[in-house]
Write the structure tokens for this entry.
Amino acid sequence: MAGSTLEIKDLHVEIEGTEILKGVNLTINSGEFHAVMGPNGTGKSTLASAIMGHPHYEITQGSVTLNGEDVLEMEVDERAKAGLFLAMQYPSEVSGVTTSDFLRSSINAQREEGDEIPLMQFIKEMDEALDYLEIDKNMAQRYLNEGFSGGEKKRNEILQLLMLKPEIGILDEIDSGLDIDALKIVAKGINKLRDENFGCLIITHYQRLLNYITPDKVHVMMNGRVVKSGGPELAQRLEAEGYDWIKKELGIEDESVEQKA
Ligand SMILES: Nc1ncnc2c1ncn2[C@@H]1O[C@H](COP(=O)(O)OP(=O)(O)OP(=O)(O)O)[C@@H](O)[C@H]1O
Ligand SMILES: [Mg+2]
């Protein structure tokens, strides 16, 4: 199915009574890679969690739609079924559920009842994805993320991404804690999905990931909103010069969300 669009309009989000997101606007079409950058504590992870329906986050204003359908009205599992995928900044450990079982039930949750993925096909696809990402086959039989190193967790998120083939992926600091070789492998995994059926929002602090995954657009968040957007050259300038020039340009003194801009 070509042509998915995730549209975030004037999104306001509160956590325990404090407004963190203050009107985020962002549209991601399948076929596009968007990078979201910004100083610490400016609302990037909050945006990802709110889109995926984390219960702590209260949407007080605005909308999120996928192909015109209201994402915020969907249960979390319905969001996944609709084609959204979130790789969290800190993936949680799930004791008692192997990576393999988790993948299989996630795939089946996206399919209709009675149309579960045949076991042999699942194993074949998983083996291919493990090979592609150079993940040891034994990892699939370990409990999900339990005792995984930081880099192993990130690679495991990309394993899920490859196998679930969402329409829109949101990847929060997928590059954090990766060694140079792992960074290339993770980028290779993301690029594998690059086609007209897949769009991606990549939250990152560093240009080095964007050396391998060229974004179509780069957005900067400050004060809980997107304050500047541009092409790949924007990320390069940030790498070279930091954020001060944007703050000066926009008259922002304190970029954190606590501050009223
Ligand atoms: N559950 C929570 N309770 C209270 N405050 C929160 C909660 N979650 C987030 N915040 C606050 O919201 C602000 C934005 O946090 P968020 O995690 O979205 O930032 P970020 O842009 O992802 O930062 P980083 O680059 O460090 O990952 C921070 O000041 C954070 O302390
Ligand atoms: Mg974050």
